[in-house]
Amino acid sequence: MTKTASNSPLTGQVAVITGAGRGIGRAIALTLAELGASTVLCGRSREALEQTSAAIQNSGGPSSEKSSVIECDVTDLHSVEALAERIERTFHRIDILVNNAGIGGAGGPLHQLAPDNWDRVLNTNLRGVYYCIRSLAPLMIKARSGHILNISSLAGKNALPNGAAYAASKWGLNGLTYSVAEELRPHNIRVSVICPGSTNTEFSPHEGMNAGKMLQASDVAHVVAMIVTQAPQSFASEILLRPTQKP
Q1: For residues 19 and 231, what is the distance between their CA atoms, to the nearest angstrom?
Q2: pLDDT tens column, 130-188
Q3: Rounded to 5 degrees, what are φ and ψ at 14?
Q4: Integer Cα distance of 172 and 79 in angstroms
Q5: CA-to-CA distance for 23 and 26, rounded, in angstroms?
Q6: 3-state secondary structure string across the chain
Q7: Among 62, 174, 205, 216, which residue's CB has the most CB atoms within a 10 Å radius?
Q8: Domains of the chain, start order
Q9: What is the pTM of this model?
Q10: Annotated active-site positions, please?
Q11: From the CB of residue 72, how many other CB atoms can be counted at a distance below 10 Å?
Q12: pLDDT digits over 196-209, tens only?
């Protein structure tokens, strides 16, 4: 049975999702739209974002007509500031920010890693989150309400040989999240980090793993839905998400 706007838990709320064109970001956007939120889909590829927007519109959910596409490069402060200005001008609010945009790669031993590859990973996975919080949190502070969800990884909790740059970005993201959560609690803003294990997406191949046993993008989206519909007196500051069976 399709939910109507009146009985959907996120009706009237605005959710911004970075990296919404593919994989986990796409799944999160579809889930938040199904819960009634107006979704703002952000990323560098307009074509991929338009495909996510079309999927939301075709879903027939309560917010199927409330999906906006905004091209944004989270590694470019001016691009993120322009995003924030447009959201304030168009929606006058932001209730949910999902910092999902991220990249992997940069494999091999750290001492052989090119500085440009290090910068590419850290700028996207860590600096980009800083830019988004810096630009969008003030709208939440003004409203004294909001959720910020950072999509990290179990690589931010465990050693990752031949992936030190990626691991460093996610360990850093975890630390950033814990600290920002304390900074924003007085403003009634809840900040959470989700650390999934290996997730089966078309852009995150994992050689030698059973795709059927891996986490799916929808599993991460389910956790996001749980967090943003949680009762107001509490919040989950960190969730580690693992597959039931090792893939």
Answers
A1: 27
A2: 999 999 999 999 999 999 999 999 999 999 999 999 999 999 999 999 999 999 999 99
A3: -115, 125
A4: 23
A5: 5
A6: CCCCHHHCCCCCCEEEEECCCCHHHHHHHHHHHHCCCEEEEEECCHHHHHHHHHHHHHHCCCCCCCEEEEECCCCCHHHHHHHHHHHHHHCCCCCEEEECCCCCCCCCCHHHCCHHHHHHHHHHHHHHHHHHHHHHHHHHHHHCCEEEEEECCHHHCCCCCCCHHHHHHHHHHHHHHHHHHHHHHHHCEEEEEEEECCEECCCCCCCCCCCCCCEEHHHHHHHHHHHHCCCCCCCCCEEEECCCCCC
A7: 62
A8: 5-241 (3.40.50.720)
A9: 0.94
A10: 166
A11: 28
A12: 999 988 755 566 77
For residues 176 and 169, give the distance between their C-alpha atoms in angstroms, rounded to a whole number.
Answer: 10
Tokens matching residue 24:
């986990």
Tokens 């519109």 belong to residue? 57
Give the mean pLDDT per block of 10 residues along the chain (247 residues): 66 97 97 97 97 93 82 98 97 98 89 96 97 98 98 96 96 98 98 94 70 92 98 96 91
Number of residues that make up the chain: 247
Long-range contacts of 72-76 (CB under 8 A, 24+ apart): 72/18, 72/42, 72/43, 72/44, 73/44, 74/18, 74/42, 74/99, 74/101, 74/124, 74/127, 74/128, 74/129, 74/131, 74/132, 75/123, 75/124, 75/127, 75/128, 75/131, 76/131
